[in-house]
Design a protein that fits this description.
InterPro entries: 3'-RNA_MeTfrase_Hen1_bac (IPR024026), Hen1 (IPR026610), Hen1_N (IPR024740), Hen1_N_sf (IPR038546), Methyltransf_12 (IPR013217), SAM-dependent_MTases_sf (IPR029063). With 489 residues, the protein is α/β, with parallel strands linked by helices. Helix content is 35%, strand content 22%. Helix 13 links the parallel strand 8 and strand 9. Helix 8 runs parallel beside helix 10. The longest helix is centred in the middle third of the chain and has 16 residues. The protein is elongated.
Length: 489
C-alpha cells in the first residue's frame, strides 16, 4: 500500500526536515505486519514528494492475533496488503512520529506553519460509499477528489468496488494532515487489524486534539475508530465534550462564534456541575484539594485556574486518563512553580492510600456511580475513614430526571453501575455522614423540575466539629451545681 505527500512550499525539499527523512536515501523500517519504506520520487526546490510504501508480510498477516473478517479464510484471503488501513496508520505512527507530534529539530517554525500539501492514496476502502470521504475530510479544510475503482474493468455491469483513489489538497500544517490520516484511514476502512481496548481511546483523543471535537461527524469517527465498542465510544465522546468546555477564549476560531453564543444561551450541565463543585469548595475554604477519579482532567483545569488552591492532587485508577490529564494541563509548558501545585497519582479509591490523607477537601464528581454498589463500603472506608479530608463533595446523576432524555435507554453512561433517586442518594449520604463523623448538605445541580428534581445531585460533607474538652471544674454537672454550693456557703 502506498501513500505520498507532496508540497510546493519553497524550498520544497524542507519537507525532508519535517518528516526527518533525507531525500537522498531510501530508508526501511520493520513495523506491524511487514516493512515500511520511505523514499522521495521527486525532491526539487519547487516540488517535493515523500512516499511511504508498506509491504505486508503474508505470514505475519496470517497470525490469529491480526483479526480480519472473522471467516475461516479471512487470514489468507483479504485486501490488507493492498489498501490503506489501520496497518498503514500504525506504520505512519512509527515512521513519521516526530512529524505527527509537530516536532522538527531543524525547522520547528516550519512545522508550526500551514503549507500547501497534496496527499495521494491510490487504494482506500470506503465502507459506505465515496460520499463518506467528503464528509470526513472536507470539514477539516481539504479539497477532496475521489476516483472510484470498478470491481472489474472487463465487466462494468458489476459496478464499483468499495475502493477509491483518494487525493487531498489543502494548506495545513503537516502534523495536522498526518493526524487526519492516522485517524480517518481506519475510519474509512471501518476495521482494525488488532484488538481494540481502552488505550485506543487515548490514541484517538491524542491524534484528534484540536479538530475532532468540532468535527460534525465525530460520533461516526469515534464509533468506527473504536471498532463499534459502545463503552469506549461513549467514553471518547464524553471526554471530547469535556475538552470543549475548557478551551481558552483566545483559542476559539472565528467560525465557532455562533456555537459559542448558542452555548451561552443554555449552559451545559457539565459546566453547571463544575460551577456547583467550585462553589462548594469555596464555602469550605479549602486550599489543599483532592480530585478523586479525576479522569482526563476537566475539573483539574478549573482548580488550576483558582489561585486559592495551593495544592491539587488528581487521582485515578486509569493511567491513560492520567496521561490525557497531563497533556490537557500542559505540564510540559508549566513553570516549576505551577507544576509544584499539581500532582497526578494512580490510585484505586476502594483501597487505603496514605498519599491521600491530610487534605482540606476531596471531590468525587460523577465517580461513585462507576463503582459496583457492593464495593461502595470499601470506597467509603478509604475516602471518609482513611483519607478523612475536612470536606467531601460528591455529585451523581438523579435517575428520576432521566425521563427528560427522550433517546435515553437505560443509564446515562454505559459504564454506570447504578443511578440513584433523590431518596436513595439522601439515605446513602446520611448513613455515610453518621458513620464517619460528618454533617451533610444535599443540593440540586441544574434546572429543577417540580416532579423529577434536578439532573444532578450534590452532597457536601463536612467533618463534624469535635465536642470541646472541658476542665473537670467546668463539667455540666459542676456548672449546674454551682449556685447550690454558693447558697450552701
Amino acid at each position: 500500500m502506498l501513500l505520498t505527500i507532496s508540497t510546493t512550499h519553497v524550498p520544497a525539499t524542507d519537507l525532508g526536515y519535517l518528516v526527518v527523512k533525507h531525500p537522498d536515501r531510501v530508508q526501511s523500517f520493520t513495523t506491524t505486519g511487514g516493512t515500511a519504506h520511505v523514499f522521495y520520487p521527486q525532491a526539487d526546490v519547487d516540488r517535493c514528494t515523500v512516499a511511504l510504501l508498506l509491504e505486508v508480510d503474508p505470514v505475519e498477516l496470517a497470525r490469529p492475533s491480526k483479526g480480519h473478517n472473522g471467516s475461516a479464510l479471512g487470514r489468507y484471503v483479504n485486501d490488507r496488503p493492498y489498501v490503506a488501513s489501520s496497518l498503514l496508520s500504525v506504520a505512519m505512527g512509527k515512521v513519521f512520529r516526530s512529524a505527527l507530534n509537530g516536532a522538527s529539530r531543524d525547522r520547528q517554525e516550519l512545522a508550526r506553519t500551514a503549507i500547501p500539501l497534496e496527499i495521494d492514496v491510490p487504494a482506500v476502502p470506503c465502507r459506505g460509499g465515496t460520499e463518506i470521504v467528503e464528509r470526513l475530510f472536507a470539514p477539516l479544510g481539504w479539497t477532496v477528489s475521489t476516483t472510484s475503482t470498478p470491481l472489474d474493468p472487463q465487466f462494468p455491469e458489476w459496478g464499483a468496488s468499495p475502493y477509491t483513489h483518494l487525493r487531498l489538497t489543502g494548506t495545513l500544517r503537516l502534523a495536522e494532515a498526518l493526524n487526519h490520516l492516522y485517524v480517518l484511514l481506519p475510519v474509512l476502512d471501518d476495521a482494525k487489524h488488532y484488538w481494540v481496548d481502552a488505550d485506543e481511546v487515548d490514541k484517538l483523543l491524542r491524534a484528534g486534539e484540536g479538530w475532532l471535537g468540532a468535527h460534525p461527524d465525530r460520533e461516526l469517527i469515534a464509533r468506527r475508530y473504536l471498532a463499534g465498542r459502545r463503552t469506549l465510544t461513549l467514553s471518547a465522546l464524553e471526554q471530547l465534550r469535556a475538552a470543549d468546555e475548557v478551551v481558552d477564549d483566545t483559542e476559539i476560531p472565528v467560525d465557532a462564534v455562533e456555537r459559542v453564543e448558542a452555548a451561552e444561551r443554555r449552559t451545559p450541565l457539565v459546566q453547571l456541575r463544575k460551577t456547583a463543585v467550585l462553589a462548594a469548595l469555596a464555602e469550605t475554604g479549602a486550599a489543599r484539594v483532592l480530585d478523586l477519579g479525576c479522569g482526563p482532567g476537566a475539573l483539574l483545569l478549573a482548580l488550576q485556574a483558582e489561585a486559592r488552591f495551593t495544592e491539587i492532587v488528581g487521582a485515578d485508577v486509569s493511567s491513560a486518563a492520567l496521561s490525557m490529564a497531563q497533556r490537557r494541563l500542559k505540564f510540559d509548558r508549566m513553570s516549576d512553580r505551577q507544576r509544584a501545585r499539581i500532582t497526578l497519582i494512580q490510585s484505586a479509591l476502594t483501597y487505603h492510600d496514605s498519599r491521600l490523607r491530610g487534605f482540606d477537601a476531596a471531590v468525587l464528581m460523577e465517580v461513585i456511580e462507576h463503582v459496583d454498589e457492593s464495593r461502595l463500603p470499601a470506597l467509603e472506608r478509604a475516602v471518609f475513614g482513611h483519607a478523612a479530608p475536612g470536606a467531601v463533595i460528591v455529585t451523581t446523576p438523579n435517575v428520576e430526571y432521566n425521563v427528560h432524555y427522550e433517546t435515553l435507554d437505560g443509564h446515562r453512561h454505559d459504564d454506570h453501575r447504578f443511578e440513584w433517586t433523590r431518596a436513595e442518594f439522601a439515605a446513602w449520604s446520611t448513613r455515610v455522614a453518621q458513620a464517619f463523623g460528618y454533617t451533610v448538605d444535599l443540593r440540586p445541580v441544574g434546572e429543577c423540575d417540580p416532579r423529577t428534581g434536578s439532573p444532578t445531585q450534590l452532597a457536601l460533607f463536612r467533618k463534624a466539629a469535635p465536642m470541646p474538652v472541658l476542665d473537670p471544674a467546668e463539667s455540666p454537672s459542676a456548672i449546674a451545681s454551682g449556685p447550690e454550693r454558693e447558697g450552701a456557703q
